[in-house]
C-alpha cells in the first residue's frame, strides 16, 4: 500500500545560477539584511511505496538498503545522555556494517544526531526547538565536495587519512521508539534520478562551519519508498556521497503520514566514512 504524500522539492530556479542555494541552521533575524535561506520550494504530490522485501534494494544500485540489527539504544538515554553513549553506539554500528558490507576496509563514525518531533511541527512559530525536527526537503547530507569539508571538520589536521582514498559517506537511520509511523523517513530510488538535471548543491551554514549538501529538484520519474511501522531493528543505510562522484546516492526526507498512530517520532542517525 502506498502513501499519498507531499514532498517539498527545491524549485528549478534560474536565480541559483547567480546566487548559490544556501540555508542557515540558526536564527538570523537579529542581523540586518540577513536571510535564513534563498530556497524556493515547490510541493509535489508523490506516492511513497512500502518496502515489502528489503532484499530487493541494494546500496550500490538504489542508493539505499535495509538491514536488520539491534543497537539496543535506550531512548531516554539517547535524548538525555547522548554524549555519554555515542561512542558505544558508534562502536556497535561500525561492527555491524563491517559484517554486512565487506567491500569496506575501514569504517569510522563521526556524527550522531537525535531528532524528536515537536508537537507543533511543522507549524512551529517560535524560533527554536529542543531537538532537530524532521527534514521535509529531499537531500543528501553532503555533496562530493561537502564530503571533504565534513571530514576536515570532524577530523582536523588528519587530511592524510583520506587524501587520495576511495571512500563513501554513509548514513544509518532508525527510530528510537517503534513501530514508528509518524513522519517516516522516505528514500528516492537512485535509478529514477537524473543526476545531471535533478541535483543542486547547497551551502548549509552553521554557527562554526559551512557544509555543502545536495538538494533534489522534482522529476515525475522519481520513485519513493519507506518502511511501514519501522522498528528500531530496521536500519536504513544510504549513501550521501562518494569521493569519486560516481556511485548511487540516497536522497531522503520525511513525509506526513495520514495513517499515523503512536507517539511523535523519535529517531537517531549516524554519519560514517567508509573506506574501500
Lateral arrangement of strands in the main beta sheet: 1-3-11-8-13
- The helix/strand class is alpha+beta
CATH class group: Mainly Beta
CATH architecture: Sandwich
Rounded average pLDDT:
94
How many domains?
1
N-end to C-end Cα span:
37 Å
Can you tell me the CATH topology? Answer: Jelly Rolls
How do the SSEs run, as a string of H and E?
EHEEHEHHEEHHEEEEEEEE
**Major sheet characteristics:** 5 strands, mixed
Number of helical segments? 6
Radius of gyration: 18 Å
GO molecular function: methyltransferase activity; oxidoreductase activity
Keywords: Methyltransferase, Transferase
GO biological process, one term: methylation
Protein name: CmcJ-like methyltransferase
Quick rundown:
The protein has helices spanning 15-18, 59-62, 75-80, 82-100, 144-154, 159-162; strands spanning 3-10, 21-24, 41-50, 64-68, 106-116, 139-140, 167-175, 185-188, 199-205, 210-216, 224-226, 234-242, 252-254, 266-275.
Provide an overview of this structure.
With about 280 residues, this protein is an alpha+beta fold. The chain has one domain (about 5-10, about 20-25, about 35-275): Jelly Rolls (Sandwich), CATH 2.60.120. Helix content is about 15%, strand content about 35%. The protein has a five-stranded mixed beta sheet with strand order 1-3-11-8-13, with no helix packed on it. It is globular, with a radius of gyration of 18 Å. The N and C termini lie far apart (about 35 Å). One of its GO terms (biological process) is methylation. Belongs to the asaB hydroxylase/desaturase family.
